[in-house]
Amino acid sequence: MTTEQLQAANRADLEAWRDFLDLQVPLIMELGRTRMTVRALLELEPGSIIQLSRSTGEGVDVLAGDRCLARGEILMIEDRTGVRINEIIGPEPR
């Protein structure tokens, strides 16, 4: 597919979604998950460290509801934290 064809397809996709483009969707940036006992939760103190299921190089998932839309990496921009999107997850086959 040529660049022009891809651009035309993108424009067609945007036009099909025209009525929904301003709809706000809550996003979740998930660093990882873990399970803890209630006892361990109650023993947490300031400075406690909770080990997550991912390593630092694995990045974060971007979720809308329970669906993963993208994957990215954490970065710092001045005094703010952001997520750089590295991969868009395509639709799941039905």
From TrEMBL:
Domain Flagellar motor switch protein FliN-like C-terminal: from-to ranges: 20-89
SUPFAM superfamilies per UniProt: Surface presentation of antigens (SPOA)
MF-aspect GO terms: cytoskeletal motor activity
Keywords recorded for this protein, A-Z: Cell projection, Cilium, Flagellum
Keyword Lipid metabolism: no
GO cellular component term, pick one: bacterial-type flagellum basal body
Keyword Transmembrane helix recorded: no
GO biological processes: bacterial-type flagellum-dependent swarming motility; positive chemotaxis
Pfam families in alphabetical order: FliMN_C
PANTHER family: FLAGELLAR MOTOR SWITCH PROTEIN FLIM (PTHR30034), YOP PROTEINS TRANSLOCATION PROTEIN Q (PTHR30034:SF6)
Family indicated by similarity: Belongs to the FliN/MopA/SpaO family.
Record-given protein name: Flagellar motor switch/type III secretory pathway protein
Organism of this sequence: Pyrinomonas methylaliphatogenes
Lineage: Bacteria, Pseudomonadati, Acidobacteriota, Blastocatellia, Blastocatellales
